[in-house]
Each structure stands twice: as C-alpha cells, then as structure tokens.
Amino acid sequence: MNRAKTLVDILRNSAQAYPEKTFVIFGSKRLSFREIERMSSSLAAYFIREGISKGDRIALWLQNVPEFVISYFGIVFCGATVVPINTLLKREEAKFIIGDSKAKFIICSNSRIEDCLNIILRVDNLKKIISFSFSPRAFYQVEDLYSIISQKINLPSVFVSPSDLAAILYTSGTTGKPKGACLRHSNLMANVKDCASLIKVRRKDRFLCILPLFHSFASTVCMLLPLYCGASMVLFRAVRPFKRILRSIIRNRISIFVGVPSLFNILKEIKLPWFLRGVIMKIFNPVRICISGAAALSPQTLREFEAKFKVPLLEGYGLTEASPVCSLNPLKKRKAGSIGLPLPSVEMRIDSPQEGIGELLVKGPNVMAGYLNKEEETKEVLKEGWLYTGDLARCDEEGYFYIVGRRKEMINVRGLNVYPREIEEILYLNPQIKEAAVVGINHPHRGEVPVAFVVLQPQADIKEREIINYLKRHLASYKIPFRVKIKDVLPKNATGKVLKENLKSELEGPGSS
Questions:
Q1: How many Å apart are CA 261 and CA 315, to the nearest integer?
Q2: What is the share, in percent, of the chain residues with pLDDT greater than 70?
C-alpha cells in the first residue's frame, strides 16, 4: 500500500517501486517514473540554487506536455508552491495571477515567452523565465529547461509537510477577479486516496489525459491519481481530432477515460468504423471506466453513450476549492442525473432545504485552506469547517445527490424558483436538440425570466416556437422560457463548461432585441 503523505512522497515511492515502468506517454515519447523523478529533482535543485525558498510560488503556463509534469514536481520537490495558469488566458490576465500570487519564477511554453518578457518588466516579484524548444540566443533573458534538467545536481534535503501549500489554483472569476484557492499537500492526498479506493485503480491502468492539466480535475484525476497508484497517463495536447483519440485508445490500451460532458456528448454521436460496432466493440475497446466531471452531464448523454460504447460512465461532482472531487456515482449503482455519493472521507449536506432543495455544503480533508490574501471571501465560503459551494442540490432517500443549478443562477419568476438545470434536462430529451443552456435575465415588465439557448442536431428541422411548444408539454407555465435562441455553438471554457455569463451578456448587448 502506498503510504505517501505528500506529493513528493508519491513520485518518490512510485519511482522506487516501479523505476522502469512508463508513467507518461506523449505520442512516441515515453518517460518512466525514474526519469520523471530524476528530472524533477534536478529542476528542484536548480530552484534552490537560484534562491527559491520553501513556500515561494512558481507559475506554470504550459499545455499538456511532459514538461508540465516534470515542472510540477520540480516545484513541489523544493518545497515551493505550483501556480498553474490557464493556457487560454491572455497576457494581462496572466499578469494578474503572477502578481497576485507573488510568483518568483515562471515556466512557460515557447509561444508564451514574449508575453512573459513583457510581464517581467512590469511585475516586481517575477525574477526569472524558463522555457524549452527555443534558441537560447534568441531570448538571452530566458533559461532553457532542458539545460537545467540534464545537469546532475544533488537536491538538498527539504522537508515538505502535509500542511504545506502544494498548489494555488485560480478560479474562473465569473463574479470579478479570479481567486486563488490554496490547496495543501494533505488536501490533494486525501482526494487522491479517496478516488483510488472508489474506482479501484490498478497498476496496469492507463488514464487518458485530454483535459488541461492546469485545471484541478485533470491534475488530480489524470496525473496525481495514476502516479499514486503506479499506473500510467497518456497525454494529449488537444482534444481534436476525435478519430486520433479513438485510435490512441486502442493502440495505447487506455483503460480509464476522463472527460467532460461536452466531450461525451460529441462521442455518442460520432460514427464508428464498421469494425467497432456491435459485440466486437468489447474486443477492441480497452476502456473499463469513463468518468465525467467539471459540468453537469445530461441523463440522455449518459444513456446513449453507455449504449454505444458498452462502458460505464460515472458522473461525479467537484470544485477547485475541494481538490476537486467530492462525490462520484459508484460502479455498482449509478443514477442518471445524479452526482452520486460522497467520497469516503467527505461529508455532504443540504443547507436549509426548501421543498427539498438548498445549497450544497461539503466538509472533509480535501477542502482548501482558503483563498489567497482574501480573508473576507474565505469567511463567506468556509464556515465551521463546511465549504459553501454555491450549488443548489437535492438528495434522495438513498443518499444520492443531484445538482439543480447554481445559487446565483436560480431564476425568481414572480416569487417562484426556477432552476435552469430542470429546463435544460427537458431540452436534452428532444432528439433534435444537441446542446442547451438556460439563463435568467431581467425583463422591463415581467421581472426575471428564463431564456434558453440551444444548438440543434445536424439536419434538425425545428423552429424556436416549436421548442417552446414542446416545453409547454413538459413544464409548468412559469418555467417556460420567455425566449428560445438557436445558435451554432455555445461558448465554453477550457474544460467544456458553458459560459453562461457570456450568454447573458449577449442578451444584454447591442442588437439583442
């Protein structure tokens, strides 16, 4: 049994137990546990030599490449804290995170060097830029990662405690500037151990990692979890093209597929080659478990995906502030539309339920230490050990939880509560609708009203008025959207979550009448 207490322990333990086994697969590149440990140790030794002290922050602005994994562990090995930056962010957005976190160094991709050179001139705390796959002569102010990790530098002894900060993950900031969620080694370790016990990870398992590693869901479930269990991860830089991913699943014998609802929604509709249809699917398909998180999974998508691929799809729930996983549908009994049961070390309850619905609260060793430099915001969400998630939920008689919407997304229609998720699920049941999102807006005469945005299936032939008539057959009159808008695509973030604030802005912007 892996007795690791920190992230440092899990890499060292796996490197000692399975030194030659492949941990990271990236195209034709293969890196063993021992190689990852050696390169991470060299990087950590370099950081210490260059003045990085325990508790300092180092930013990581990289896509899904092996260098992300090496850099992540190089940072924690020297007792510093990882600050991952969303690769979709622009220069000024990244500048805010670097300044707010007081990051001293940044490790970035070649394409981000010029942005970082601009930022280092304007942010006093940032002292050094490290990158790779570039000509050092072209950027004399930038250190080369591979020159550093190829050196044999002895790593001085650094004691890393479970209570030390391992990572500061910035939330999406839909209600203002992003907030840095401070996660201790103990928070992440508790989450990893719970996940390992629930899905019964084996050493021979291979995790598909197509979600961005800067996001808490991917870094915990696709990187830390297989590392803890002595399993492997297959890295992809991009989600598309899907056929390349399907080929890789067979070629690399991927057994655990981790994704987001929008991905499973697309996969359930993709046309499979003739030799992957029917009973023979079981022979070619090595996947034994699929896990969906980061956004709500439609019951229709779950049913159609499982019917097509003959693999259980487990929906879970989590948030950055909880490392992130809080609940998961068990393999033995999963319920469509449910986020499942709490993890073994996690408690969940509904706060002050009205008609069975209230704010979802979470407690456990996975819950963050707080928001960086934001005492008041921390007090608003952490009360007596409970994390106030902002999500509205209900719980059935067997203890399974169901998310019905965000507290801030709830629509008050003439004093009656309307939950967007309820309308969206009815929309997803219509075979002509591919995607749906519902938001609330203020109407000058009616008060708050729901508006639905839908993306139609290819070849669909349905008009907005017909969609409203369809909803009238399934919902109470006060829940019927004031308007339905048909769109080509819905705006999404890097993990596939629909950006509802963008949709609301579209309604409130010019030409929205």
A1: 9
A2: 94
Nearest to 166 by CA among 82, 71, 53, 86: 82
Q: What angle do CA 55, 56, 57 make, to 5 degrees?
A: 115
Peptide bond between residue 324 and the one before it cis (omega within 30 degrees of 0): yes
Query: Is the CATH number of domain 411-508 3.30.1330.30?
Result: no
| Count of CA atoms in the C-beta half-sphere (13 A) of 45 | 16
* Mutual angle of helices 7-17 and 33-49, in 10-degree steps: 140
On whether the CB atoms of residues 37 and 6 are closer than 8 A, the answer is no
Which residue matches tokens 């994994």?
69
Q: Where are the domains of the chain?
A: 29-176, 411-508
- Residue 197 neighbours by CB distance under 10 Å: 12
Percent of the chain topping pLDDT 90: 66
Nearest to 327 by CA among 304, 369, 360: 360
Token reading at 420 = 């967007």
Measure CA 45 to chain center.
30
> Distance (Å, rounded) from C-alpha 199 to C-alpha 196?
6
User: What are 83's two structure tokens?
Assistant: 């600050």
Per-position b or e across 152-185, b if 16+ CB within 10 A of its CB: eeebeebebebebbbbbbbbbeeeeebbbbbbbb
d(CA 452, CA 446): 16
Q: Which of 282, 289, 284 is nearest to 250 (CA)?
A: 284
Task: Report residue 64 as tokens.
Answer: 């899904």
Angle at 470 between CA 468 and CA 472, to 5 degrees: 70
Give me 97's structure tokens: 């995170």
DSSP-derived letter for residue 133 is S
Q: Are 357 and 393 in contact (CB under 8 A)?
A: yes
Write down how long the chain is. 513
Report residue 257: phi and psi, to 5°: -105, 115
The pTM assigned to this predicted structure is: 0.84
The burial of 442, by beta-carbon neighbours within 10 Å (0-12 exposed, 13-18 middle, 19 or more buried), is given as exposed
Condensed to tens digits (0 to 9), the pLDDT of residues 132-162 reads 988 777 788 899 999 999 987 778 888 999 9
CATH number of the domain located at residue range(s) 29-176 in this protein = 3.40.50.980
* Side-chain half-sphere exposure of 200, counting CA atoms within 13 A: 5
Q: Do domains 29-176 and 411-508 have the same CATH topology?
A: no
